[in-house]
Amino acid sequence: MNRDAPLLFFDSGVGGLSVLEPTRALLPNAPIVYVADSAAFPYGTRSEAEIAARVPALLGRLVERFRPRLAVIACNTASTIALDVVRSALDLPVVGTVPAIKPAAELSKTRVIGVLGTDATVRQPYVDDLAARFASDCTVLRHGSAELVALAEAKLAGEVVSPGAMRDAVAPLLAQPGGERIDVMVLACTHFPLLADELREALPGIALVDGGRGIARRIAYLTREQPWPDVPGEGRAIFTGGPPAPPLAAALARFGLGSAGGL
Ligand code: DGL
Asked: pLDDT band at residue 158, thresholds of 50, 70 and 90?
């Protein structure tokens, strides 16, 4: 294994940073290539056919170009639709991101849990399956929110997120029958942990759960015997839609992605 081979993180936008951050905490010397498919952002309002056609093809090109040791699909939408196809097409370990329903069910006392994701994620059979396997004695209420995805992107680009916009975005989930009894919320979109402070304010008394740390542990486990550079790994961000604007580039630098450009 070449010690400079990077970890490749992939998302439609900046959401994958919520998976990158805990990974960097465990593997500070890992070189990182972070790819945002900004040319096709957002994924959450696209069809299954679009995601299933685009993600494996793009990842194939990225793997050929950057020769990563492992790829992380840091996106619930892409993972719940295309993870199996990507795994069978690529000759390297692929770690996906799927809704953290199991830990949420372990935590819930009221046995009512919320799943906040994108429209595309919350309608996936993959989510039905997770709910049936790990939360069969819970009521699992789901809601897809494109607004929250946009708010997370705006926050990273330096804009102020208003508490009113946050409350409006989560209101349809709380308004579902039983919504008032939700005590654990699964953040089933990697963009949403980037709004954790704002979500805590909008959802008082509700525990927020996401898969970021678990995925980081999985990446560390899968690479446990591999060599890394002796110094903190370089991070670069690639945006398929062209280089990010300066405020976003500055935010990326705070996540260790010092250079940012187009594909
Ligand atoms: N961050 C992505 C996810 O985890 C999707 C956001 C989007 O492009 O709609 O689902």
From this structure: very high
Verify whether residue 138 is a known catalytic residue: no
Q: Please state which of the four CATH numbers 3.30.70.250, 3.40.50.970, 3.40.50.1860, 3.40.50.1260 is assigned to the domain occupying 7-97+213-262.
A: 3.40.50.1860
Say how far apart CA 121 and CA 45 lie, in whole Å.
Answer: 9
Ligand 1 nearest atom to the CA of residue 43, by list position = 8
Beta strands (DSSP E) in 74-175 are 94-95, 112-117, 139-144
Could you tell me if the CB of 189 is within 6 A of ligand 1? yes
Topology of the domain covering 101-210: Rossmann fold (3.40.50)
62 and 92 in contact (C-beta within 8 Å)?
no
Domain boundaries for CATH 3.40.50.1860 within the chain:
7-97+213-262, 101-210
The predicted model scores a pTM of: 0.97
